[in-house]
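Exercise 4. Each item below gives a protein and its sequence. For each, produce the structure-token representation.

Item: Shikimate kinase 2 (Chania multitudinisentens RB-25).
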Amino acid sequence: MTQTIFMVGARGAGKTTVGSALAQALGYQFIDTDLFMQQAAQMSVAEMVAQEGWLGFRRRESMALQEVTQPSTLVATGGGMILAEENRRFMRQQGTVIYLRAPAAVLARRLEEYPENAQRPTLTGRPIAEEMLEVLAAREVLYQDAAHHVMDGTLPLLQVVEQILTVLQRETVK
Ligand SMILES: Nc1ncnc2c1ncn2[C@@H]1O[C@H](COP(=O)(O)OP(=O)(O)OP(=O)(O)O)[C@@H](O)[C@H]1O
Ligand SMILES: O=C(O)C1=C[C@@H](O)[C@@H](O)[C@H](O)C1
Ligand SMILES: [Mg+2]
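Answer:
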């Protein structure tokens, strides 16, 4: 198996954490678009947004997606990667897309515990629990549209990884 795997989902869903463990289990290279962009630009997400607005950040993000997509690579995307139709189509065509799904309350709890504000500047200016409700209401359909597989991101880390491995194995024997 060499197809690129893309993790999509909201902030705090576990794309980076689960993605990194899954890449290790598969012997895949791991790339996180948020980290890749921050290293390339030598700026945090918050700095990019302050200088160029969300539009500038989204442009950079779409370019990063194209740059990092290679065989035997797992790409953990940023929570808003699915906003552009072009990105959703690209990921679906280039590989297998996994949507890590979790309710707003779980996401908000994780983000309150590990805010990482430099990578996660506010999207709406609202308190985090309200923001996640609003973001999921607007994006759920887009995550679903991008995804080949929807996985439960609320399970303990190792269980999420195992369930994704099972789904990928089923895909390769088809
Ligand atoms: N299945 C899980 N169970 C418990 N905690 C988790 C799980 N997945 C992730 N976490 C925790 O939630 C926090 C956010 O996870 P992570 O950074 O992987 O999310 P993300 O989807 O990459 O978010 P972003 O879109 O901001 O990059 C981390 O501190 C991580 O340890
Ligand atoms: O949900 C979002 O729109 C974002 C999620 C993060 O991964 C970063 O890509 C950035 O903070 C934007
Ligand atoms: Mg991440």
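Check: The radius of gyration is 15 Å.
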